[in-house]
Amino acid sequence: MTALVGHDEAWREWRAAMASGRMHHAWILAGMQGLGKAHFARAAARELVAEPGVPQPELHPDILLVEPLPATEDDARRKEEGKPYATKRNISVDQVRQIQHRLTTRPTLGARRAIIIDPADDLEKSAVNALLKSLEEPPTGSFFLLVTHRPGRLLPTIRSRCRTVRFPALRGEDMDKILARLAPRADAATRAAAIAAADGSPGIALGFVEQELGPLHATMLRLIREGDEHFTLRGELAAEIGARPDRERLLATLDLARAVLAGAVSSAPGLQQARIIEAHASLAMLTGQAPTYNYDPGLLAMEIGGLLASVALPRETA
């Protein structure tokens, strides 16, 4: 877990703080989705709470995880069975208050307790306000790790009370090594397409390979280059997504569409850049809604395709 690529500087900063004896009580782990920030948070928390000579259980009582709850009772059962499940849209104030109640007691196995909020982007407004009280007056021995994909969305009052560790996007050669190790069946062409689409995120690149998104990627590129006046490419996109895709495939498709737009913006002329930014914002909103709302896959494919096609310049302009 600690050997994930791109975490060396984060580990140096974390371990230097632990060794200094002046450990900050709250940390923001910031970077794009798919960089392994949550893995880092869990491993760092285990180092933080470990006591010499005291056995450390796998499910550690002094590591408290706050994350979106399963959306329904059926999803809760799927989670217990280790199956994919949908989650609620936000982390509620009740979840934060339950953790705060735990903080009134002493840690179970040692002198320290770690609270991981993953992702902090999903805290509802009242939950943020409740968390702020704990950050302003942290209980002795309690340390907060806030995983965030979009740190700018956190309130300035939250950011000002935390120390920030940034996780950089990975280089292409590092991404290729990860894919070669974790997705050995993918050929060089598939790995290259995954790396291009993922924009430095190994998590997105792995999803690209596992979900076999190569044909989707090619169609998305055609949509932003050519548009789709007669809805032909949108139909192809819907067929490639499938009539009954699972939740993971839909979310991977949305991530891919956003990555395609992000990769296109730097080389686009000014007129097209504005369209790309607007379409990317709409896709980001759609991605946030998808886990909660039961979208029809065909209509969702048409919506994604329409947003991608909207950025294409007229042929005489292009």
UniProtKB/TrEMBL annotation:
GO terms for cellular component: DNA polymerase III complex. InterPro entries: DNA_Rep/Repair_Clamp_Loader (IPR050238), P-loop_NTPase (IPR027417). Gene3D superfamilies: P-loop containing nucleotide triphosphate hydrolases. SUPFAM superfamilies: P-loop containing nucleoside triphosphate hydrolases. GO terms for biological process: DNA-templated DNA replication. This is AAA family ATPase. It comes from Novosphingobium aerophilum.
